[in-house]
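Input:
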Amino acid sequence: MLEPGVFDDLTDAESKALAQCRHAVLGTERPMRLDCGVELGPFRIAYQTYGTLNADKSNAVLICHALTGDQFVGDSNPVTGKDGWWDSIVGAGKILDPARYFIICTNVLGGCLGSTGPLAHDPANKQSWNLRFPVVTIADMVRAQAALLDHLQIPDLFCVIGGSMGGMQVLEWAASFPKRVFAAVPIATAARHSAQNIAFHEVGRQAIMADPEWKGGDYRLHDTAPERGLAVARMTAHITYLSEQALQRKFGRALQNRDALGFGFDADFQVESYLRHQGSTFVDRFDANSYLYITRAMDYFDLAAAHDGVLAKAFKGSATRFCLMSFTSDWLFPTRESRAVVHALNAAAANVSFVEVESDKGHDAFLLDEPEMFRTLSGFLQGAATARGLRSPR
Amino acid sequence: MLEPGVFDDLTDAESKALAQCRHAVLGTERPMRLDCGVELGPFRIAYQTYGTLNADKSNAVLICHALTGDQFVGDSNPVTGKDGWWDSIVGAGKILDPARYFIICTNVLGGCLGSTGPLAHDPANKQSWNLRFPVVTIADMVRAQAALLDHLQIPDLFCVIGGSMGGMQVLEWAASFPKRVFAAVPIATAARHSAQNIAFHEVGRQAIMADPEWKGGDYRLHDTAPERGLAVARMTAHITYLSEQALQRKFGRALQNRDALGFGFDADFQVESYLRHQGSTFVDRFDANSYLYITRAMDYFDLAAAHDGVLAKAFKGSATRFCLMSFTSDWLFPTRESRAVVHALNAAAANVSFVEVESDKGHDAFLLDEPEMFRTLSGFLQGAATARGLRSPR
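Output:
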């Protein structure tokens, strides 16, 4: 079925994604009011599910993805052909086992893999939104997810979990819909985006907008793409996802396919070649305008500001069980950011556990094979599942 | 006097700079052999001096500038109209007082403020070098400075001092010309560029080269300039010069000339506005190709590699007195990099003192008002001057 306005002019990536996942068209009867004041509707949310909702609807887990993530958390990404981005955690016999949980992962509002974002057509005038798409917030993304749960008739979630921007959504869920969240796992995240992180995002956006192929955001109209700008944005961001130690250990000053310095501007060093590769592969799977919107949503995130400047107020009276994790070498979302959330949760007398995981892998550690993270998560979920009355599979 | 080939087609900035400083044309009789194998000559070195060389030529101080620095260390920059970049240290009554010392600061080889670099004409064919200029190294910059000292008939230096890339030159001076350096002060620097630092440089270069106005480096031929790319490069680099704490203290999430979020892509936050300003003012004073060359020189710097992989060998038998400083919040050239140099100097039984200065200002601290740095430097120089037999002024 083609819903008017929300299925026009899909990109190849969107078509491939929507063919391999579910979607819902929401806000048809009543549009959703965004933080910016715009009434959005209808809009599409693309999502993937794993497992089956149990009879008492008590086993739903929502996984929230990070800046450049997507809904294909536990199965092959139809655009890149790569494994799901949290394949290590989601799957048969793994911590989030579809035999036990009904797992949902949505492409965020503003995304570019099937959910409505700047790529979509404005139903009002049949034109691509591009930069006329309203700026969305983390709270808007969460509202859209809540609308999806309403649509699926799922009253509440056993667990909301995510890292980085996914963790921001987890915190927003706990603050905005406390009764719908039994357990919350915000990983490698913060309750507000720091000045340094806003600065790095701004550099990325400037790189995109400096690319003449961007054309004020209307590149699809002109059949161009700001690939070079987007690649530079990705390269900058990618450095922030890794620790200095990890880069040194992985690459150091090793040369790329050569025995001596080339005395030129080719990629002499492996780290240069690696970064260029990160940039060039990213543009094949991500939309530049979507990158602008999602980074902006992260910049705008400030949970305390929305609660009279007092973070603890965001969690007042919360019955949610929290488990926070940070990584020692993560300098993008350092441990002190998680501690600030833990302090606020303590001040709100919430149920919270916190683990700082020893790792030299930087921010990306949350996506990688980190046994201490797996143990912590497994133990926390087991306890929460018991408290929720969820039976073990088999 | 117009020397053939080395005064053709000056930029406005070069003309202004050369009108306000001295210069020497070197390599006229015998070209200088660069690390890449190219024989360079004639070439021009622009330099500024303060004070007077004493009768026994024992009071010469060479100050080495950082990536985007210049020769105007202690007097007004004729391009920007701003105070000298180390005005806090160089001047009457200050630590480096022209009444006591003969202070020299050269624009580095490869620079864009009067010394020969990619902007210059290749004397062989009267064409602008642009990207055909040979890739120079820190050692080449130091060789050019040594050639200038020969030209000025100054046998040796009382002190070589500099921060960041300036510190690399100091280390190279001590290693290559130990007998010409009585005292050496490398500040906030490293004996080799790290993988993370190479990565940040590569992002900056990619931003410049992605700008269509760059035109393979031949933008002057086309009367264009890759200003947007260069601005993005500067913005990225600028973040690395500041600490996360300094950005948070200075800007936090404060908004720029507005009471509420703008829900758009203008500079909502002060930190965005500040960064954009850093980018846009930089392009008025710096050349994009020069930025490529100088970052490359830093990437290539690896003092141990040039000495069988053993850093201590670089300083074997050195009689130079060393004073190193680092800053606690500098994450671009963190303290461990200075410690590695100190360990090597100790292993070489050199005379070394080291101070880690407590500061939250990040890498840029070396350019700022840091009383502990001033005290350390003042004490060290006083001791060295006494040992050298330099009398106090007046």
